[in-house]
Structures are given as structure tokens and as C-alpha cells.
């Protein structure tokens, strides 16, 4: 059945002047603007899963939650910590939006775990890149190219990921500080420490106080000792475990801290640039994730934020509740990206002829992805 759907999608793309891939609409909701909508949710289901090989292949319309459930039954998981799974996020949408959560701090993002992809380009061709083995270096690296492409390069139909063993238990240390500057002073101790930390998030409160959340995962037998070391490093703090601990990070991944309908903007940056940005958005809800390398800003004042980001030479992506174009802030053309777009979508069927922003590395976790 799914093979027939792929052929149907190819025919639709070939016969249409403009198309828009659509998943579960949990993140970006780009207006169709007269384009033909491609419902990718029909392409759902696991194609191949080899627990002993730590490899899973599924159709792009498969809900991430379904894949997570299957992996969990075998003690495995997707380490890049997909966002919005409880809202129905799909694998294809997660790749296209590069939707990684706080735990990408330890192991990396989508780009580090996708090893294969099949997609339909603007000519209706079915293109395959990568494969179903980790050490596959043959051909152009299309899978990584599709990460963060926002559906601009083609319609993803199938993806393959490597997976990891799931930590047996988790615990989180909460460290409260009276100000952002006090919290940022502690951050280098954590990012440079010899301990294996799964996530480091910094949350700004209503009175501009700050709280750092440090998550550690691993064997239950050694977790208590590891948390004591982290608490000693931080000079104190509250250790949270069990259901309360899991809920903390579920709220982060599902953006439960954001009011319904308020746009949420993702801004890649480095910890040293946080003070300048934070000073310009005092009324917005904000959370600095991935060790201070990703800012999440919830605000309805998008024009003001766009101007702020431009003045600070920062780029942003409206991941939730984008009114139209999700890109704000700095926009830099890239000749290679433009050539790739022209090669894969010469008739401009997948969107406006706007260049993708080039990848920008950050020192703390190599910012494996600029979006």
C-alpha cells in the first residue's frame, strides 16, 4: 500500500505547479497559498527494525510516539530527544524541522542519527541517500541535507535512524540563582566538567530569576553517587527523581511552559551571547537549552524580535504557531545551497526561491545544526 502511495505522490508532484508536504501540523504550519497539499501521514508504519543492529527504518508519516514505543519495548530510544511527540509529531516533520529536545546536549541532534532517507524531489524523482548500516559513506549525504530543510528540497517518504540503549534511570538537579548572570557563571563548570550530563537547561522566571536544570541518565545503581558529584560541583541544589523528574522534561519537549497559540522561536547562539539577547526580550518567556546553545523564546511580538535578532546578527526559526514565513532575524544567502535547491527543485515547486541559511558551528557542542 505505501509503495502505491509513493507513486501517487510522485504523480501529484509531477502534475502540480506548487506543492506543500504536510505532516501532523504540530510545528510549522506554512500556508498552502494555492499549492497542492501532500498529506504525508498516509505514509505511516515501521518498514524494518533490527534491535540487535540498533537500526530502525520507517515511513516519514509515522508518529514519533509510535516509534518510541516500539524502541522502548527493546530498551532503546532516539537520543536526539524529538519534540512534540505527544502532540503527534511525525518522523518526517521532525527531520524537516530539525526538532531536537534538551537531551541532544549529550549525543547530538537529528543530523547525528539519521543514516538513510528517501524523498521525492521537484521533478517527481524518488531519490535515496545513505542506507541501513551506520558505516555507509557512499554518494552524496542526502539524509543530513534534509535535516532542517523545512520541506524546501523535497517530500520525505522514508527515514532510517541509528538508535541507542535507553538509560535505565534519570535524575535532575535543580539549582536556583537570583539572576541570569549568576546562572551563567555556573554554566561553564557544568559544560566543562568530566561528568556525563544528558541535558543542561537554563530557565528564566517571571522576576528574571534563573534556574538551571541538569539531567543525568544511566544505571540506577550508580545514579545517586553521580548526582551527589554534580550537586557538589554546583554548590548545592535540589535533586528531583521519579514521575516529577520525567514531567519536568516532558513539559520542556512539549512546550507546556508556553501559553496556547503563542509563537515559539528557536535561536541558535552561544552562551556568551545570551546576556545581550536576554536584555532585549525581558517580557518574553525564554528558556536556554542544550547547554546555552539554543534559545527558545515565546512571544507574540515577532516584528520586534525579528528586529532584535537582526541587530544582534542572530537567526531565528518560528517552530510553533508561525503566521507565515517561519524564518526571522539574520538571513544570509549561500551559493551552494541555492545550487542544491535548483538541482532538486528546478521548477520551484516546493516553495519560494529563498536560500537556506548556511550551517554555523557553535563551540560548546559543535552546534551540529544551525536551526
Automatic annotation (TrEMBL):
Region Disordered: start-end pairs: 347-371
Record domain FAD-binding PCMH-type: where: 1-166
Flavoprotein as UniProt keyword: yes
Keyword Flavoprotein included in the entry's annotation: yes
MF terms (GO), sorted A to Z: catalytic activity; FAD binding
InterPro entries: FAD-bd_PCMH (IPR016166), FAD-bd_PCMH-like_sf (IPR036318), FAD-bd_PCMH_sub2 (IPR016169), FAD-linked_Oxase-like_C (IPR016164), Oxid_FAD_bind_N (IPR006094)
Keywords: FAD, Flavoprotein
Annotated Gene3D superfamilies: 3.30.465.10
Name of the featured protein: 2-hydroxy-acid oxidase
Native source organism of the sequence: Candidatus Thermofonsia Clade 3 bacterium
